[in-house]
Amino acid sequence: xxxxxxxxxxxxxxxxxxxxxxxxxxxxxxxxxxxxxxxxxxxxxxxxxxxxxxxxxxxxxxxxxxxxxxxxxxxxxxxxxxxxxxxxxxxxxxxxxxxxxxxxxxxxxxxxxxxxxxxxxxxxxxxxxxxxxxxxxxxxxxxxxxxxxxxxxxxxxxx
Length: 159
Known about the structure:
About 55% of the residues lie in helices and about 15% in strands. By secondary structure, the protein is of the alpha/beta class.
């Protein structure tokens, strides 16, 4: 009787471990964005000129240089530049101060640009998801613009 219960328990444990072991190892960055540094490449939704690409690269580097930050996503489109970042855990108490310092630096270094700055995880995940979709050549510029505008609107609603 006892050995029957042990067999049942062992069988259950093996079944569960096989099920979890067979899951896909390739999780998308957007699914892992909360758990690890995804380091998405900076993106330009429209007018992918060399100048715009250099601009978003410089912006990402400037923001990534903040010691309190460990992950940054930058998207330029429709006259706006979205800068989304994740703050190191122990620095989260100073988020307003960090955002203010970052916004001031960005406005000083790039006076011709209009910035939307956010440390919200939901916005970060949406930006990483847009980045993944834009890697697909079949994903149209119109869809990218629409998604970018939705992300900006979501950010405005949250503030």
